[in-house]
Amino acid sequence: NAGVTQTPKFQVLKTGQSMTLQCAQDMNHEYMSWYRQDPGMGLRLIHYSVGAGITDQGEVPNGYNVSRSTTEDFPLRLLSAAPSQTSVYFCASRDRGSYNSPLHFGNGTRLTVT
Amino acid sequence: GESVGLHLPTLSVQEGDNSIINCAYSNSASDYFIWYKQESGKGPQFIIDIRSNMDKRQGQRVTVLLNKTVKHLSLQIAATQPGDSAVYFCAEIRTNRDDKIIFGKGTRLHILP
Fold it and tell me: Does the N terminus or the C terminus of chain B have fewer Cβ atoms within 10 A?
């Protein structure tokens, strides 16, 4: 059981480039989300989704797009990378149908924008 | 714990002592709370959770206390070990509203030998 899988693990971009961070989960979780974590900081919610076809903004959505065409996948797109988007990105999923169901996290993608 | 700029608050505890990590949550409508542990270079890992209809829940060496009156959550770790060194985050969820999950700013636990 792979859980939440994020790719790539590391990425370096130049300012203005675009890329997609991939996230897949094999637990049939309805809820998926993206967080960014800056050095010495907590986790800030970028976007989240409560099911296929549904997405919503979190605390820091600007500069990022998401889509949820399947239950398993929740890619995060950076349309025009900026140095301020240098961060570690975590994808997480959760079973909304369970009474007590914590978030399960991937191992993160470390992104550097030069 | 509240962060100060880029510096996480740090709690230093002697090995073998008990640790208490505090968290103030923001929304009185939140009904589910979770503590996570994050070791260097890894993603957050689930430790323990609690629903708003409870005020205490115990796990193995960990206890979570919830005070809804003052919107405060604490994590108690008994007999702290070197492997407990990490950053600890609390998270609040409004499961009956929008499922938006917001994390506190975190506390670094440092174990003294």
Answer: C
Beta strands in B1-112 (DSSP E): 10-14, 19-24, 32-38, 45-51, 56-58, 62-67, 72-77, 86-93, 101-103, 107-112
A48 chain-B contacts, CB cut-off 8 A = 99-101
Core vs surface per residue B4-40: b (16+ CB within 10 A) or e: eeeebeebebeeeeebebbbebeeeebbbbbbbbbee
- What is the chain B residue with the closest CA to A98? B95
pLDDT higher than 80, residue A23: yes
Q: In this predicted structure, what is the pLDDT of residue B1?
A: 36
Instruction: Assess B104–A contact: CB distance below 8 Å, yes or no.
Output: yes
Distance from CA of A108 to the nearest CA of B (A): 6
- Residue by residue, DSSP assigns A14-70 as -TT--EEEEEEESS--SEEEEEEE-TT--EEEEEEEEETTEEEE-SS-TTEEE--SS
